[in-house]
Amino acid sequence: MKRSADATPNPAFRQRRPAQLAEGELKHLEMILASFVEGSAASDRLPTKYWDMRIAQLDAQYDLVPSQSHRVATLQRKLALLDQALDTAANAQDGEQNRRVAA
Description:
- The protein has helices spanning about 20-40, 50-60, 65-100, and strands at about 15-20, 60-65.
- It is mainly α.
């Protein structure tokens, strides 16, 4: 018996997960970024690139409703601001260390 063209799965097509399953991930990511702002030591955290990847995966793997898409965009903006702040702090600390060595 022949298989119809519709019966063969297309490996390039991946069905996205339902929006309701994304809620737990969204809450987790929001909590993580809030804890970054409250401030534990930067060395205790995973790098911001990791969290950026997690946020991007959430957007790519789930069929988000508009309010969830807005929350993802907000997370991306907050993470970008956090990354800038961490870079600025690291550069300031490097500058301070260089001044101490020169003195």
